[in-house]
Specification:
The chain has a single domain (about 5-10, about 70-110, about 140-330), classed as 3-Layer(aba) Sandwich (UDP-N-acetylmuramoyl-L-alanine:D-glutamate ligase). The chain is about 40% helix and about 20% strand. The chain has helices at about 25-30, 40-55, 65-75, 90-100, 150-155, 170-185, 195-200, 200-210, 220-225, 230-240, 280-290, 295-310, 320-330; strands at about 5-10, 15-20, 35-40, 60-65, 80-85, 105, 120-125, 130-135, 155-160, 185-190, 215-220, 245-250, 255-260, 265. The longest helix is centred in the middle third of the chain and has 16 residues, at about 170-185.
């Protein structure tokens, strides 16, 4: 049956502010490099002022892990519904504009709630690694009220980000979404999102996984942290017990896919990485586009690998709309 949506997603709606920094900044500010850390709005404002004064703002862009994936899928030509929470402030209106209207329906109404929209400070070091400080603000109130059950039923996949594990109301929404998806034959996919989610919120992540998921996205570090193993091979054996299919991204080494029967190596594209923010989100979004359009795992992996290499070659977690079509043409795949 042809579904109205390829993917139904739910996630934190955040606007990213990106800065190019040196490693000394993390020492001075007492920040753990390479992780996403939750902070309150006041602390974030202090650091924002410090970053702006010391380095200058490099880029502002719509963000949020699942949102970035949904955006990528939509720009390739997939159809999506995205549930989130933003406030009636300048940042919230910017976020909605950045999400775009093409192929993405949302739960957001014309009148947004009063409050503060979530923001993420993204600090990129010369080695291209991203470190994030996030104030969820109104996004931490995402709950079952944001779910659209008609849209869930009308989707091929439901997709959630691991970052939702930090909010009790968001956790409830994910569990309700997963239960409802299963009852209506909708596949359930998730991403671990960040090593910090697996390291500090492992019980919540395992609650999301429950008795298993249809498709899981993670990187090599997250896979080994989650499984408590020291090798990718052992991590994959553990993943097989909980995920019917999965994709493990390996940075400059490409990716390793498991389609339920066999493992598939995905070749990397050699590029000069400038900013790894959004690389995993792009991989997930491009991959979900591929498999929902009928491509096999290997082809979906090729799309995702090339898309990720393109997004790390520039600042910001998303590509320009026209780049998605150019990418498919490069791979000789018609839309």
């Amino acid at each position: 049956m042809n579904k109205k949506y390829d993917v139904y997603g739910i996630g934190n709606a955040l606007v990213d502010k990106e800065f190019e920094v040196d490693d000394q900044f993390f020492v001075d500010a007492g920040i753990e490099k390479g992780f996403m850390t939750l902070i309150d709005d006041e602390k974030q404002s202090e650091l924002l002022e410090m970053l702006t004064h010391r380095y200058g703002l490099k880029k502002r862009a719509g963000g949020g892990s699942a949102a970035n994936s949904i955006y990528a899928l939509s720009q390739f030509g997939g159809r999506a519904f995205f549930s989130c929470k933003v406030a009636n402030d300048e940042t919230g209106h910017f976020y909605v504009k950045e999400l775009g209207s093409q192929n993405i329906h949302t739960n957001l109404s014309a009148t947004l709630e009063e409050g503060v929209t979530g923001r993420c400070l993204v600090m990129v070091t010369p080695d291209a690694e991203r470190t994030m400080l996030t104030s969820l603000a109104i996004s931490q109130l995402v709950s079952t009220a944001e779910l659209d059950h008609d849209a869930i039923r009308a989707s091929t996949y439901a997709y959630v980000e691991g970052y939702l594990v930090t909010s009790p109301s968001a956790r409830s929404a994910v569990l309700e979404l997963k239960k409802y998806a299963k009852e209506h034959g909708v596949k359930f996919a998730m991403t671990f999102s960040d090593p910090s989610m697996v390291e500090y919120f492992k019980d919540g992540i395992n609650e999301f996984i429950g008795d298993g998921v249809d498709l899981l996205f993670c990187n090599e570090k997250e896979a080994m942290l989650w499984s408590g193993t020291n090798t990718l091979e052992d991590a994959c054996k553990a993943l097989e017990k909980k995920a019917a299919q999965f994709a493990v991204t390996l940075g400059p080494k490409g990716a390793l896919l498991f389609d339920g029967n066999e493992y598939i190596n995905v070749e990397p594209h050699k590029v000069r990485a400038i900013d790894t923010n959004g690389a995993g989100d792009m991989f997930s979004g491009a991959f979900l586009y591929g498999i929902t359009q009928g491509y096999d795992f290997a082809t979906a992996g090729r799309i995702a690998s090339l898309a990720s290499s393109m997004v790390v070659s520039r600042f910001g977690p998303r590509l320009e709309p026209e780049q998605h079509l150019e990418l498919l043409q490069r791979l000789e795949l018609s839309r």
